[in-house]
Structures are given as C-alpha cells and as structure tokens.
Design brief:
Layout lengths: L1 H20 L18 E2 L2 E3 L7 H7 L3 E8 L5 E9 L11 H4 L6 E13 L2 E12 L2 E11 L2 E3 L2 H14 L5 E9 L5 H22 L3
Antiparallel strand pairs: 1-2, 2-3, 3-4, 4-9, 5-6, 6-7, 7-8, 7-9
Helix pairs in contact: 1-4
C-alpha cells in the first residue's frame, strides 16, 4: 500500500507539472446537466435526489454531479454518484472513493476488478471493492470516464489525463460510482444486480458526458 501511495503521489505531481506547462485554452464541448439524467433506467427508478452540503462540495470540487438511489421491483438498490470535472489543470481532480470512504469510517474488506458487458461487444472494466462499517457491508463499483473512454485504473486515468491535455487540450473527466448494500443479502445476487444497473446506466452516461 505504501509503494502504491508513493507511485500515485509521484504521478499526481507529474500530472500537475505537465498540465500547468500546457497553457493552451481547453476545448471542452458542452455537456447535458447530470441532474437531467433519466429517473427511469430500464426497470430501475430513482428514489429522490441528494444534494450535498457546502462542506462536501468544497471537498469534491466537482463542476457538476448527480447523487441518487435507484431501486427496481425485486428490491435491488443501486446508489449512484457521478461527479464531472470540466478542467483538472488547477488541482480540481477526480477523487477515488478509496480515498474518501476510509476517512468516513468504512473498512476495506476486498479489492478487485470486474468486467461488465455494458453493450453488445463493449465491456468496461470497473473497480469492485467491498467495504464495511459496523454491521453494514456494501459493494462498491466505480470507474473513471473521459472522452468516451472508461478505465478502472487510477494510474491509467492520470496518464490519459496528461496525454489528452497535451493532445486534445482537454482535461475534463468523471468518476462514476455505484454502491449496493450486501447485509442480509446474497452477495452474488447483489453483484449481479449492480452489474445490471451499470448496463442500464452506460448508454445514458454517453449522452450526458462529453466524448
């Protein structure tokens, strides 16, 4: 873990140096507000809307976000968060949930990756982590998305950030996170449900995040 943090720190420093060195104005196409994302995704229906307080927004520093729980008739729950950053040149970068959740008291039980077929012939690799706080256990799926590209690795996300900043004059990007409760439920069934939600969500994201 120490080696991983060291590498990530060095990568973040290199990212900041490269992006600050490039002063070309960014060319970010407009995007549809995330709040306009459909409240119905297939058989999933949103249950309310969450608005973060000022302290949380000051930490996230996202330019746009949506946070809402979705459920479907069989009782499955998928808690969605999407945070969009129009520019990551000045330190407003995507925050990994694995940096935030432990700070909120969640213990990391398992870390892995999972491939989800988001569309026929198109699979995305997502982070698949399990966290626990007291008796509450949850499955966390998350990935980074920018310019139509979805990646699980935070390292590759930073590398693409530098390359796209130099090549496309764009540093916009997003974090997509889906959390489902596991307590008193079959873990395999919960994971299948979360994957189903990702499949319903993926085509909608492509309409709301600039490619």
């Amino acid at each position: 873990m120490t080696a991983r943090l060291t590498v990530l720190t060095l990568l973040l420093l290199a990212t900041a140096v490269c992006l600050r060195a490039s002063t070309t104005q960014e060319r970010v196409p407009p995007h549809r507000p995330l709040a306009e994302m459909p409240r119905h995704l297939g058989e999933w229906t949103a249950q309310g809307e969450r608005e973060f307080d000022a302290a949380t927004l000051a930490v996230l520093r996202a330019d746009d976000y949506v946070s809402r729980p979705y459920t479907r008739p069989n009782g499955d729950l998928a808690d969605l968060y999407v945070g969009y950053y129009q520019s990551q040149r000045e330190g407003d970068t995507v925050h990994s949930p694995m940096n935030c959740l432990p700070g909120a008291g969640w213990q990391l039980l398992a870390v892995g990756r999972s491939s989800i077929e988001a569309a026929p012939g198109r699979s995305i690799l997502v982070n698949r982590d399990v966290v626990q706080q007291g008796l509450d256990t949850r499955l966390v799926l998350y990935w980074y998305q920018s310019h139509g590209r979805a990646v699980a690795s935070e390292y590759w996300s930073r590398a693409y950030l530098v390359l796209d900043g130099l090549r496309l004059h764009r540093t916009d990007g997003s974090l997509i996170r889906v959390i489902s409760p596991i307590r008193d439920a079959d873990a395999a069934a919960v994971e299948r449900g979360a994957a189903d939600f990702v499949r319903a969500l993926a085509p909608v994201l492509n309409r709301h995040l600039p490619e």
